[in-house]
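Comment thread on ticket #2218

A.B. wrote:
> Attaching the input chain for the structure job we discussed in standup.
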Amino acid sequence: MHKFHKSIFREYDIRGVVNETLYPTDAYHIGRRYGTLVDSRLGGKKICVGYDGRLSSPALAAELIRGLKDSGMDVVELGLGPTPMVYYSVFELDADGGIMITGSHNPPSHNGFKIMLGKDSLFGAEIAGLEKITEYKEGFGSVTKLNIKTRYIMRLLQDCIIEDGYKIGWDPGNGASGEIVQKLCKALPGKHFLINEKIDGKFPAHHPDPTIPENLEQLAELVSKNKLDVGFAFDGDGDRLGIIDEKGDIIWGDQLLAILAQEVLAENPGATIIADVKSSRLFEEEVSRLGGKPLIWKTGHSLIKTKMKEMQAPLAGEMSAHIFFADKYYGFDDGIYAALRFLNIMQNSGKTASELLRALPRYYSSLEYRIPCKESDKLKIISDLKNALKVKKASFSDIDGVRVNYEDSWWLLRASNTGNYLVARFEAKTEKKLAELEATLSGFLAEYGYFLEV
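C.D. wrote:
> Ran it. Output below, let me know if you need it in another format.
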């Protein structure tokens, strides 16, 4: 029976370094096992497959599709495009599942698989369960090539109400959303300025992660030089969104979520809006002010989507800039759709992007610290921290790591589900208090030989 590298089955997806921990033959056996699962769980066989612009993606896609066919699946081959296009196709075509081959925001040498079973994400124990399947369903499936890009673009435009007048910058970061963004801009009113729109798996302009400030510098320069109203950036597979306002400032994921909640709560009074544990307290304050119910939940796109469904929440988001709309949409994370909904708010409110940002409650917040940490130490450190806080009778939440709450501040330490590192974030009403929080956690981590580089 085929053996996989032990590291590739993650909490939210399957992911590895190509030809080091992840190989084309793995893709074939993932196809066999996933096809077997779809047959046994759903009795289905229609599977949508797409891939991003990485150099390794076509070969992985070919082997995945071969494995699916050999398990009796009928594959709808969508070709190159963003992850949300694959998610959309599963709903639009009423498929039994979908797989996107993508390395997301990771370096060019990485790749992986984001998987849907039916209309839901496959994650956690269910992803790990694929590795344990030992008997394959045998069959003779088919492959149908389908260009669904135009239908996807028309669906994106369906909820867009902006009128002529905006000057907008777009940076797909040489990622998989490039072609869609180019075609979308031709259908939108206003003036559009595109950079890095050519899909290139080497990502020559910058790393495809819009949550890192230096990756937004080129877009900020474009906005400033051309006096644009707003700039949008996407990650490698188009499911995350970065925004630069007209003054050159970044609108972070939790701030964006609070802004987007305005329109959603106006049409869904009292609804629950979900954010992950890394999100600012401004999210909770703003959603409450708007009459909604803020809910803080575990980090991870699959976990957020599942909680949305459970709570029937119309909107959710993460600090990592995954934004999920169930209001008028399907409940999955789509960076381009979120950008259009942001433009709607600008249009309806008559406010600039910077005015929307500055209307939010103000806090001093750190960025996300990633502290390299041995896998064997991560959970022990979190466990020891919980015990220490219990002794001190401190107020904290442990739904995902430890989030310690004070009246005017909070801090978080959690173990990453996707890498060998701890994640920390801090927020306070004053810079002095922020520094005190950072010093407190820094002292605790030093006892284990780890250091917070502030």
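A.B. wrote:
> Thanks. Noting for the ticket: The chain has a mean pLDDT of 96.
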